[in-house]
Amino acid sequence: MSGLVILAPWLVGGVLIGLIYFRMVRQSADLMLSGRRGGPLFGVALVLLRMAGLGGVLIVAAIQGAGPLLAAALGLLIGRLAVMRRAV
């Protein structure tokens, strides 16, 4: 039972990170393709920001062990699924 108590926050956190990450993918793609001044540069900055954030979260989860890393990765996939369903 205590294992579920430890893994549940990582799963929820992974879902939240997945929702934020994949929404930022859409925003950065829109910025890179926009004709606005500075849009492509800001889009590239968002790409670097989201990759660093995701990498940091997954590194912290990996330090905690295999269970939290897998729970966070599963949450990330669930967040991706939710964002992709809204896009259709």
Strand content: under 5%
Overall residue-averaged pLDDT value: 90
Over all CA atoms, what is the radius of gyration?
A: 15 Å
The description of the largest β-sheet is: none
Order of helices and strands: HHH
Low-confidence stretches: none
For the termini, the CA-CA separation is 38 Å
Discrete helix count:
3
**Class from secondary-structure proportions:** mainly alpha
Shape estimate: elongated
Helix content: over 70%
Work out the oligomeric state of the chains in this entry: single chain
Number of strands: 0
Q: Which features would summarize this protein structure in a list?
A:
about 90 residues; mainly alpha; 3 helices; about 90% helix; single chain
Walk me through what this model shows.
The chain has 88 residues and is an all-alpha fold. Helices cover 91% and strands 0% of the residues. The chain has helices at residues 2-33, 39-64, 66-87. The longest helix has 32 residues, at 2-33. The mean pLDDT is 90.
